[in-house]
Specification:
Strand content: under 5%
Largest sheet: none
CATH architecture of one domain: Alpha Horseshoe
Distance between the termini: 61 Å
Shape: elongated
Radius of gyration: 26 Å
CATH class of one domain: Mainly Alpha
Structural class: mainly alpha
Length: about 300
């Protein structure tokens, strides 16, 4: 994480009127005016800050002014690790405001920038994974941004992408970047598959299974992904998990509201393996809904 740089940036680098003109020029991308203001004192001016301790580089990143970003880094040697009052560096200001070109320009400027973390332990990859921009993610990987680093709560870019339903990002992070698909985190020591199953994200569940997620892993409470899906009434996810090898026996829960007979679960699992997908989904969901609260045998 970038260190505290309090005392490095100085409001006295430019007087108030000059700072106001400079920051407005950066906001609108007026390069001639910016160059005129910074020509004779590029270093001190680049370290000036506004009332929320944002440097010119923060402002250029915030408004996506890529030529200004490149000028400040190259000509003025602007610091990329300066923190504003929100404890954000310029790359994170760009990411927060969806200014991806400016963010990438900063990330490509040095490996240290590409590997920055914010106060929550998020890397730039966490932000982009949540948004689901695979093209930007590939560029970050090329720039050296880590793809499988947990934040302070243990969440990785993979878990952020999965929580937002970005199945294509899930496949990329595991298959191409080598993200640990069965990494556990949180109080329940659960995997990404547990959370996707509980939230009812069938495309993400299928993607996780395709890239090797364990279908039978239990969390700290002994709950498997199929049990998590059943307890949340996510029957389409239950269908997918059963068709991919989840144990029917694990569906026998103590809670009568989510109980299901082994025979009914076996019937669904066998049915989904032999039916075409549209009919498979309809059949499985219908059977599970009908029998989940009233466990019965196949004879009934």
């Amino acid at each position: 994480m970038a260190g505290n740089v309090t005392g490095v940036v100085s409001p006295a680098a430019l007087n108030a009127a000059e700072r106001s003109v400079l920051f407005e020029a950066i906001r609108v991308g007026d390069m001639p005016k910016i160059q005129a203001l910074l020509k004779d004192r590029p270093g001190p001016a680049a370290e000036s800050c506004n009332d929320i301790r944002q440097t010119p580089l923060h402002v250029a990143a915030r408004y996506g002014r890529v030529p200004v970003v490149n000028y400040l880094i190259g000509r003025c040697k602007a610091r990329t690790d300066a923190l504003d009052v929100f404890s954000e560096t310029a790359p994170f200001a760009a990411a927060k405001h969806l200014q991806f070109d400016a963010m990438l320009a900063l990330a490509r400027s040095s490996r240290a920038v590409a590997q920055q973390k914010n106060r929550l332990g998020h890397t730039l990859m966490h932000f982009i994974a949540e948004i689901g921009r695979l093209d930007v993610m590939r560029a970050l990987v090329s720039a050296g941004t880590p793809s499988d680093i947990p934040d302070h709560m243990g969440a990785t870019p993979l878990s952020r992408a999965a929580s937002r339903g970005h199945a294509h990002v899930v496949r990329y992070l595991v298959s191409t970047c080598g993200a640990a698909v069965d990494r556990r985190h949180g109080e329940r020591n659960s995997t990404v598959l547990h959370r996707a199953a509980q939230r009812g994200l069938p495309q993400v569940v299928a993607a996780l299974l395709d890239v090797g997620a364990s279908v039978e892993t239990a969390d700290a409470d002994g709950v498997t992904p199929v049990q998590a899906a059943t307890s949340s009434n996510n029957w389409e996810v239950v269908t997918i998990l059963l068709s991919r090898g989840a144990s029917a026996i694990s569906l026998q829960r103590k809670d009568p509201g989510v109980a299901i007979s082994v025979e009914a679960a076996d019937a669904v699992r066998d049915g989904v393996r032999t039916c075409a997908w549209p009919r498979r989904r309809h059949l499985a969901v219908a059977v599970l809904r009908r029998k989940s609260r009233y466990p019965v045998t196949l004879g009934n």
